[in-house]
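Worked Example 4.2. Consider the chain below.
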Amino acid sequence: MLRLNNTFDKKYFKIELIFFVLYFYVFRFLTDFEYNFWERKKSGISFFEVEYNLLYGTSALIAYWIFYQIIRRYLISKRLFILIAHILLFLVFYSIYLKATSYLFAHLDFLSEEMRKSALRQFNFKSIGYSLAYVLREFFSISFLAYFIHVDKQNEQVKLLKEQQLISELTYLKAQLQPHFFFNTLNNIYGLALKRDENTAPLVAKLAEMMRYILYKADEKLVSLKDEITFIQNYVEVENIRYRSAINIKFDAQGIDDNSKISPLLLLPFIENAFKHGIEEEEKEGFVNIIICKTEEELTLEVNNSIAKNKEKTGGIGLVNVKKRLEILYPEKHKLEIQNDEKIYQVSLTLEMK
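Applying the procedure from the previous section yields the following structure tokens:
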């Protein structure tokens, strides 16, 4: 949280600095320029006006920067009575401050004579030293800046907290998915090992390759779509080794390029679900058809699988988790359709690619 606050402070200090420079320097020069152009019928501003605006703009900037710190501290915290007391004190000291700066400017020998005379007149002028109308203008402008930054900072903090919450939830969902995936795959290896099947070693090799992908890629926010498809292809090959010719398995990937990115392990649960909950109990008539198609703007996944007889339920923790991940990662940017007619289970997923 300290790091976030430091980031916010740096960002908003730049905004504050730009505001004060514009307000107390640029606008003063523009006002004089406009007055000279329209009223005096001359372009540009004199050396005296430049000198005057720089000196009194700097003195006003320093005073109102202090006032701005008061606004930030008490207005935002809704301590109004303390704020009003500080404003009254500021008005008193601001009058003294303006007289003191005018006296100082009147006695600085390196300033122009016209500037020193003007400062002396302001020092000797029998008044509080400022216009209440102008002071109120400054008050409202600076108060608006303080309130704007306060609201924007709160919105940024809420946004970051939401992002952190989403990251934590995604991490949790991935943590659930990975043990679930390995549990299913190890079951496959265990079944082949009991049969002393010659395909056990190739299956272990494929699993090792998939484990390497999960260990090094699963924690990344986005991975190469090409790598993700290769991982899925390895998974399908593992299932091919397991079922061999008993089940009709088809896998086709089209339009996969090297530049597209996708959240890791996002497509796997749909494919894993087709094998785990669709044809696991089939012996000779089951099928799984997988088509992944990438266009310029969309990625489409189509999975069709037969449903084993007497299979009462399809879907599992992986499918539940991936639906949650889709809601988090692709809000209003995905379309998921699932159909089940008790004989064929169909999944159609369309993603707007990031």
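The two ends are 29 Å apart (CA to CA). The chain has two domains: 2-130, 164-352. Compare this with Example 4.1 before moving on.
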